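Q: Could you fold this chain for me?
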Amino acid sequence: KIQLEYELISGEFLETAVRDGTSSDCRYGQERTQTLEPGELSLRDLGYFSIYDLEKIADREAFYVSRIRWNTQVYQKEKDGKWTLLDLEKLTKDLSEGQILELPEIYIGLHQKHKTRLVIYRLTQTEWAKRLEHHKKAKKKMPKYASRINLLITNVSSKHLPHNEVYELYSLRWQIEIIFKTWKSIFKIHEVKPVKMERFQCHLYGQLIGLCLVASITYRMRRLIWEKKQKEVSEYKCTYIIKIYFSSIHDVLFTTFQHPVSVLTRLFQDLVKNGRKARRYKCRTPFDILSITQECTKRLHKAV
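A: Sure. Below is the predicted structure, expressed as structure tokens.
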């Protein structure tokens, strides 16, 4: 199992770790929590969800946006100190497609009662159809109402992160999934011949060095094209084109006296011409959202 921690604003890998296939994502997340600095924002998927860990993040004066499972117990505290268990099905039954419901102060967990902010997003019909298809393939079952909503929690205040930006911000977590998809579909990292363990480890770590370099070049080229040309380049197309140029980049760095700028300039021009991503109507691109993220991060650091 390969674990990645990725810094979205700079495009840098904070850690690449190879773990046993049966190791716990949640435990790995707890280990990485110890590295968080005050004011930093962590995006967590369901596999890394732990109420105990969320409390540790808050203790470090850091911030999180995380999904929670549909069956997580959610409470509100009444004025008399009593706890009221919320019925999420009733709360969300009248939400329309794309609508957002915010509960600014709730508590999660039967025993922990962790105070947080809940943002509920009702999926559009297209998003719901994709989720149902995924559940069918994974043979995953959940109540109908639960399949139509996303439950997001955060300890960022509405002053610094409005409720209508929480879901968009969390959608950036998909960037790490895209990296893994390109590694599998373009570089076939998951296809390995039967070899001795030592040879496999050499092959794997060598591949990871190259893949991290490709991902780094991909991000910087995409960002540069966005800033200079106001065009968004497809992550998949960009990675594929960089793979074609990879041997040329290696040659100018290690075997020839040619300046790297000449190769990188040709790569840039090729990406502008052939790598453009089809933009969905009224949908913000990752770089649109990242501009919001940068402002949010600045506000959080000032708040801390």
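A (continued): The longest helix spans residues 197-229.
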